[in-house]
Amino acid sequence: MRIVLIGDIQLGRLFNEKRASFNPYSSCIKNMLNHADMVVGNLETTITNHTIKTPKTFNYRMNPAHGHWLQQISLTHANLANNHILDFGVTGMRDTQFYLDKLGIGYAGSGDNIEAASRLQIYTYLKDYKIGIMGAADHYKDWAATKNSPGINYFDLTSPSKLIQHVKKAREKVDFLIVCLHWGSNYMDAIPNSMRALGYKLIDAGANIIHGTSAHHILPVESYRGGLIIYSNGDFIDDYAVDPNYRNDLGMMVTLDADLKTGNLNNIQTIPTIIKDMKVDILIG
Fold this sequence. Notes:
By secondary structure, the protein is an alpha/beta fold. It has a single domain (2-282), classed as 4-Layer Sandwich (Purple Acid Phosphatase, chain A, domain 2), CATH 3.60.21.10. It contains 6 helices and 18 strands. The strands form 4 sheets. Strands 1, 2, 5, 6, 15, 16, 17 and 18 form an 8-stranded mixed β-sheet that branches. The radius of gyration is 17 Å and the shape is globular.
């Protein structure tokens, strides 16, 4: 089956000022994603009409009436373990989950307690094969869900033993496992040893793909023991100012054919993209 992994999706702020028919994708992008069996991305915004902001520098919310923007790219799964899902508090998080349910888009990584936030989302393909996707983030720590409080599936990058054990248990329930990690800082010059070591450990624990986001620019893709580690896809679509050094207007889609019976990953490709005037297209030349 064909899987496409894309980066951060931020369709809030300035996008809300456009008319409902505003199209942020090129026909080439839509055609490629609409022909995939599964599209996975990090939703870097809430979907809510709630107006009370969490005190922080940037707060993102997408107008619920514009949910078709997510459907246009056949988004299968949205990672909600990130540093924006609580931008408009618990209400914003719950609204986001509600609207994704209405859109028929799966999600994982946040919830009303740690059990919900660490939930494994399972998709069944070819009648018998189960693909599991889980989400976790290393920021913010004070957004961590607990037994009795809502938040994200938080992990500590310096001591991720709980996350590793979680991956081992998740792998027992599915034939193929994708772990979405919103990890590391914005705009990094090199992959920290802690991120690389964790990627290896999670593949060893049973993950087939580590889908990393958060840096807002492209980081390398690495093959390890038959698994794939994407350290950062960069941004798929946003309205951000462009940093001339890190070029956060450039991103990449990672496409591959997954053999669900063997776990083998075939025909892996990285396809460069570019955001211009809040529209994403394939980068050519």
